[in-house]
Amino acid sequence: MTWDMTVLIIDDEQTILKTLGDELFAEGYDVHCAGSIEESVGFLQRNNYLCVISDIRLPDGDGMELLEAIKRDRPDTEVVMITGYGTIDSAVAALRQGAFDYVLKPFYNEEIVCILNRIREMKQLKEENTNLKKVIKERISLDRIIGKSKRMQDIFNLIQTVAPTDANILIVGESGTGKELVAEAIHHLSKRKDNPLIKMNCEVFSQSLLEDELFGHEKGAFTGAARRKPGRFEMADGGTLFLDDIDDLDPRVQVKLLRVLQEREFERIGGTDTISVDIRIISASKTDLRTASAEGNFRTDLFYRLNVVPIKLPPLRERREDLPVLIEHFLKMYSKHPDVHFDSDAMNLLLSYDWPGNVRELENTIEGTLAVAGDAEVVTLHHITNDAVVRCEAVPEEQYNSSLALDEVLNEYERRHLRSVLAMTEGKKSKAAELLGISRKSLWQKLKQHNLDPE
């Protein structure tokens, strides 16, 4: 900060300005000196200060009033009051008004140096604490989204890049891919993080209730409106509004939402007063809104307003290399013992399943499976509670029938095995090639053959 080593001394005694100023300069401080309140005003307007050292009695005013003004206008600047006419009452009054310390004349210059050192240490601790809280909040925000794959790392980087801006964001992904977690991370990494994050699911409300939830209503606006109710837009003022499942938004509400996005203002239901809000909109959709707008099912102008920064979350089946780390994460979250693990058959089954419900389905499956496993340290196929996952084991057997050619069966098994090995090696091609007993070039060719993204 610019005030880290800058000090202003205000005193009408030239000897104090000279001797104390020289001492502080020798200690490495940038020192400014003023003989009166009037002279100090120019310094205070042009500079930021670590500390102002001021006499209580000054030729053109009261130092206590100056203290009050400094703490009101510059709360981060510390003030040390000095006086030759000190009393207990004046000391208490100064400290109550925000003075950092109170020193009686005559004093040793070293005493002021020690006070300044304490101020610097205090500010350094505050800054370190603030930075630590920021780092912890950022880490918590992103750590809830699990993924080591390149696609997820690219998404993490995009989140950190766009979060500090006020750009509207549209998150697109299948159910269970973590759209709400991404919205929460963006908010907590933004400059709006200390203001509310208000969430709204557009799918669960009828058109009339949805309008009421978004815009609020005035007392008497309709039968049962016994008092004024603020809507989600008002509640999110200064913060972020997250609109989930916006692809289910009623067309009549789409028109009103467009106006809020354009003007940042609206009226409550039954009201005439226009309410202005400062909000950021993050929306989420489980379908492609561009296609929906092209088909006439979603307003094109609203789509472009929402889609300033698009974030597309891949389904779990398209980032299988993240499965082992996700499974490990949920094991730690729900297991009773640190040594609990899946046996090879159970793990291979979890890795081969397509997870149409994505991360949410995986988490629910592991939570339920561990509940059934009880105190067992080794979790087996018999403990898995998700019937769809268990049935997945029987699919390859069904392929052994006379209607399938041998090369079709072999190709399918090869594709499944490649996918499973890549998941176990977390996408590391060299390790996968080593486990498969083939060259890296042969692995690349097979991945390309099976459309498994060789890059």
Automatic annotation (TrEMBL):
Any one biological process term the GO annotation gives: regulation of DNA-templated transcription
Residue ranges of domain Response regulatory in the record: 6-120
PTM-bearing positions, type 4-aspartylphosphate: 55
UniProt keyword terms in alphabetical order: ATP-binding, Nucleotide-binding, Phosphoprotein, Transcription, Transcription regulation, Two-component regulatory system
Superkingdom of the source species: Bacteria
InterPro entries: AAA+_ATPase, AAA_lid_NorR, CheY-like_superfamily, Homeodomain-like_sf, HTH_Fis, P-loop_NTPase, Sig_transdc_resp-reg_receiver, Sigma_54_int
Transcription listed as a keyword: yes
Ranges for domain Sigma-54 factor interaction: 145-371
GO molecular function: ATP binding; sequence-specific DNA binding
SMART domains: AAA, REC
Protein name: Sigma-54-dependent Fis family transcriptional regulator
Organism: Candidatus Auribacter fodinae
Organism classification: Bacteria, Pseudomonadati, Candidatus Auribacterota, Candidatus Auribacteria, Candidatus Auribacterales
